[in-house]
Amino acid sequence: MKKYIIITLILVFYPLLFLISQTNPKGFMVTYYGVLSDKPFQEIDVANDGYEYLLLSNLKEGIFKTGRQVSVDEPVRFFYRHKLKKNETLYTFPEKKISALKLDAFGETLWRNFPSEDRIIKWEIDKNITRDIAGYTCYLARGIYFLGKDDRTGRPRQIRITAWFTPELPYPFGPYVYKDLPGLVLAAGTPSYYYVASNVKLLDIAPNVPRPHTRILTSDEYFNKISEITKRKFGFDIMEKYRKFNDSIKRANKTKKPTD
Q1: How far apart are CA 41 and CA 45, in angstroms?
Q2: Contact yes or no for 159/147 (Cβ under 8 A)
Q3: Collapsed DSSP state (helix, strand, coil) of residue 252
Q4: 21 or 28: which carries more pLDDT confidence?
Q5: 138-163 pLDDT, tens per residue?
Q6: Alpha-carbon distance 100 to 65, whole Å?
Q7: In terms of Cα–Cα distance, which of 192, 197, 193 is closest to 164?
Q8: In terms of C-beta density within 10 A (0-12 exposed, 13-18 middle, 19 or more buried), how is residue 142 classed?
Q9: Taking 90 as the threshold, does the pLDDT of residue 45 lie above it?
């Protein structure tokens, strides 16, 4: 008799508890996959980059990282700059405007401020255009991602990006650098590479979001640290070699006439 009472209570209260957890979640986990394409958000089930990507959040902070490999034939990834690499983790804390990238620096772990302050995305929202992604109604946002100045022309370098966010989940998170919109970003990217959510799981228990265990470095501090590590481990400053190489490229470019 006692067994049947317990089963009855479970059948009665579990749907109610599930409904409460969905309306007042303590966190969420979103699974994305990366798409290589020259036609953003077209035929998105065809061109998969071979990996899943996970966004985990307790509603106040979140991490974005590479998940499991879903395809044996991995395409060449070197040319797609505006994406997360396999050994990187991106940590975000919107309330404190903190965003940091976990990097492997020749066997040592460093956390670097990312994106830097001069690369903040400026969004324009168009609520006249919608689409359904992972069961949620999403609105279109267009933005410009600034990449610094062109060494040859001195003009700002920038790339146009697109994002789809859902106000149904009013959290300012998203894949990689695509965030700070009035709703969770379920698809976003550049014309050649973008992320698309395949599953959204709301959590009734706040997940543990690992925080940076060392100080977050500015860009200058990060490159100085790279110099220090390579001097200590290999006996030379790799950043100094890079600067000399970059200077030679700049000198060569100055002899060319700008085409734009």
Answers
A1: 9
A2: yes
A3: helix
A4: 28
A5: 999 999 887 776 666 777 778 889 99
A6: 12
A7: 197
A8: middle
A9: no
The two tokens of residue 247 are 């200077």
C-beta pairs of 37-43 under 8 Å, 24+ apart in sequence: 37/192, 37/193, 37/194, 38/191, 38/192, 40/162, 40/189, 40/190, 40/191, 40/194, 41/131, 41/162, 41/164, 41/187, 41/194, 41/196
What residue type is 144 in one-letter code? Answer: I
Whole-number Å distance between alpha carbons of 190 and 2? 59
C-alpha pair distances (Å), 119 with each of 81, 111, 145, 146, 186 = 14, 17, 6, 5, 21
| Residue ranges per structural domain of the chain | 27-217, 218-254
**What CATH number should be reported for the domain whose range is 27-217?**
2.50.20
Distance between CA atoms of residues 171 and 91, nearest Å: 15
Counting DSSP H helices and E strands in the chain, the numbers are: 3, 12
SS3 of 52, please?
strand
